[in-house]
Amino acid sequence: MLLPLMAVLIASAWPAAASTTTAAAQPAAACQRRCGDVDIPYPFGIGRGCYLYTGEGDVTFGLTCNRTADGSYRPFCWEYEVLDVSLRRGQARVRNDINRWCYNTTTRSMDAESTWWWDVSDSWFHVSDEGNRLVVVGCNSLAYVTSVNETEYMTGCMATCPSVGRLENGSCSGMGCCEAAIPRGINSYVVGFEEKFNTTSGAVGRCSYAVVVEAASFEFRTTYVTTGDFVESTGGKVPLVLDWVVGKETCREARRNATGYMCVSRDSECVDSRNGPGYLCNCSAGFEGNPYLLDGCQDINECEDSRFKYPCSVPGTCINTPGGFRCSCPDKTTGNAYFGTCEAKKSQLGVHIAIGVSIGIALLVIIMSSAYMIQQKRRLATVKRRYFNQHGGLLLFEEMKSNQGLSFTVFTKEELEEATNKFDERNVLGKGGNGTVYRGTLKDGRVVAIKRCKLINERQKKEFGKEMLILSQINHRNIVKLHGCCLEVEVPMLVYEFIPNGTLYQLIHGGRHGSRISFAARLKIAHEAAEALAYLHSWASPPIIHGDVKSPNMLIDENYTVKVSDFGASTLAPTDEAQFVTLVQGTCGYLDPEYMQTCKLTDKSDVYSFGVVLLELLTCRKALNLQALEEEKNLSSHFLLAMSENRLEGILDSQIQSEQSIELIEQMADLAKQCLDMSSEKRPSMRQVAEELDRLRKLAEHPWGRHESEELKKLLVRGSPSTFSEIELSNGYVSLTDSAYLGIQSPR
Fold first, then answer.
1. What is the topology classification, in CATH, of domain 504-742?
2. So where does ATP get bound (predicted)?
3. Which of 267, 548, 653, 670 is catalytic?
């Protein structure tokens, strides 16, 4: 049962009456402001002239009031029922559909699609990261949330049922139910199931469920798994929280537009959105109402409002003021009416004494405030010093003193803020699962890439200085150079050399170059990237596992020279079970299936991901294409199926077929197949992969004749002739029909 809601797909068309009025236009007085038991405050509205028309895209704040099956009236936004709207929080709650995926024990297949989209990227709405969670319900069920374009973010979790008897109501920590946080500021996402792990069947319900749901409204019940009544008990819909804004500028920018500024009420104030550019309006303190309407914010009379306790103490009298109140003592008395100390007025001497005491208190407050500010500055310096020591700063300094040839700099927080203009969003080069990368210019004029990592655990903090020391000594022409780091912040920042010409992903799939890359250039790129990863695995001390090998993490300069990037302190080869991960992270399409099952990252995980990169170079297809046919969505699965059915040429890039011998291409494809073996033990090492690609480059560059020369045999054999079973000569190129020359057992 297909559930591709294709995203609130920026659905319904505009109301035909939408006009080109300014953003700050006011609604008509006769507008309907309630549908059923739900209030509809402006900027939302029902009908022409009753809601804010943004003038952009196909999504507005316009709602419809529809009669439902039970005879009641409910408001709807697109196809989704609106539960309520909060002006102060800038949120709207809607009913979201549950994604169900059922395992058919007879056909050993699934009864529904494994992915589900939501996309409102052209609207004024975001999915709230604070109010919502990804929830997965089932047994042996793995689901994830990723970006629509597959490169920005990914998060997910896996629900298992080792013992059905251990399931607990209200517990969603992995047994039958798991949950994961979603990224901030997203307005599109894909919910997907991993087919290899979603096999819920047997003694429990055969269906798995995944949905982005309001965290406060979801409570797990064991019957969701044992009887599969999740959809039935909820009606198939659960609450989802959306954040919204009324303008896509900052407050400072919005105030400059006199006709479009939305905070029109006199006693209102502008609040910048926490999800990025955009703003909301709130009534000022002491006022309440609708800040988007003229005179919509009204003064709260604290003296008479029954919602408030009478603020003054007897015999004090409360006097309401705009935005507040004051307490006054009765005539011929003096004192503090707030605390009920009104007394008859005393002689003038008492007044002078009171004034003197007040001045003394003021001076004391000033002295204490100054002392507090000095203490805070010292505390800040202490915190910076603690972070510096905690991240191994002393270890780095000692090593830098003893090793004068070490080119590594420990930057201050202020230096990096100045280099990036306080980490301005306009300097963002890219965002990923491990952090955000900014372009920066140091005082000496060097242009660098500065990576702000996400939170790391206590163990990583303790070993950060040692790991930075190891990374600083990596010197390979195909690995981005680490210039230094900043340690005086809670999460350290890394400073790399800047490569300005984009990534391998952009080169292959960007359209400007695309399939016009020659086969020789593709071999060069693959060989250099393999050499860099082999260096990390075999020659770095201790070995380093990249952990996220993919074409977006390979930078390319104008000469097609590769620079492997985006590896950091968390990627040292694990030495014990304490370094197992509890949540699989990486990029969908490149992830090692064995890593997803065992949660243990090894050097062979990098080999699998590199095999997917080889397929991108051979086919010019994306690692994961959700818009493709079902069997072609995952490139590695599609390739392995094509190889098994002897139809490799059908998925290869047509250009390389026309310019290169098919035997040489088939050898490169066979190497990719070995890298993609489901068993990590059967995959070659990165060193072996690099050696084989080097051999293929030499074959591609040398114009061999149609005869067997002694020079050719010496190049191919690299040892005893017994390491291969047969040599075939065709189209001027040589191919080996036995993979034993690699020292690798071919998969059966």
1. Transferase(Phosphotransferase); domain 1 (1.10.510)
2. 451
3. 548
